[in-house]
Amino acid sequence: MSRIGLVVNPAAGRGRAAAAGPVVADQLRAAGHDVVDLTTPDVTSARARTAAFLQAPGADALVGVGGDGVVNLAVNAILTHAPHVPLGLVAAGTGNDTARSLGLDLRDPVTGVAHVVAALTRPPRRLDVGEITTLRQDATAADGDATPDGVRRFFLNVLSAGIDAAVNGRANRISRPRGPARYVIALAAELAAFRGFDVRVVADGVDLGDAGTLLAVANSRSIGGGMQIAPDASWTDGQFDVVTARTIPRRTLLRVFPRVYGGTHLSHPAVSVTRASEVHLLPGPGTERRLAPPPLVHADGEPVGRVPLRLRVVPGALAVLA
Questions:
Q1: Does the pTM of the predicted model rise above 0.85?
Q2: Are the beta carbons of 82 and 54 closer than 8 angstroms?
Q3: Which SUPFAM superfamilies does the protein's record reference (predicted)?
Q4: Which of 50, 123, 191, 238 is the most buried (most CB within 10 A)?
Q5: For residue 249, what are the contacts with CB-CB under 8 A and spacing of at least 6?
Q6: 145: domain CATH number?
Q7: What is the pLDDT of residues 226-270, one digit of tens each?
């Protein structure tokens, strides 16, 4: 018997996760496990209860029910308080990009929890994670170790800081329709207003320059419910795939960005991929007034702050029941 913490995001999937939570709990108990329900109506309380569970003796696993948001909560809790505890996931969210990349069932919670139960009998997989550290506003590549507030967070999938982040933020504010169609609507709205962002990237000490259109630091393949932003990214290679596109005219972006759904945007000459284990996201020179300030940065679909940021790969840091 294992002692398992269960955290459900009741808002995920427009209520689908809330309905799946009791099913998952019942199935885990039927398999002989001791289940501690950590679910609360709000994120702050859920973080606190999850942290308390992981800090107490006897925690054997943490299972999340929801989408990429509950994954981000669980990953940060585990790596902050109990890095040895493995993470299980039952997909019941909107985007489900973590579950999709892990090859998990995206629709049936009974199948999802059966996968977790079976995985509890085997050694977990080890996955790389990304570490996010806040830098000073005047940070440069040379003084990037500055951490004024000690803020450190982790992400598992993709961190976005270009139009991909702006689309993510707008999609989070849209209540209808449900599912990945929200991202399509958000994309159309952002494309209509696009003028480029004043941001640059330094990857393993190499200045990649202007990344005013697209900026994704990818530890895995997809965002936004299956958009293949970095189709060759791997959780086990110790590197990010840094996908960037310089500032381009809106008409060009209208042709390029829809190709993200199939991953064919990488063949466009404005788009480049650089592999790196440490990345700095920095404000641009600010000399081009028509460019917008960088958008709110998102990781695993969740807002994590604004540039400047330092990102590092932490190889094999997370144990996963998959």
A1: yes
A2: yes
A3: NAD kinase/diacylglycerol kinase-like
A4: 50
A5: none
A6: 2.60.200.40
A7: 889 999 999 999 999 999 999 888 889 888 888 988 999 999 999
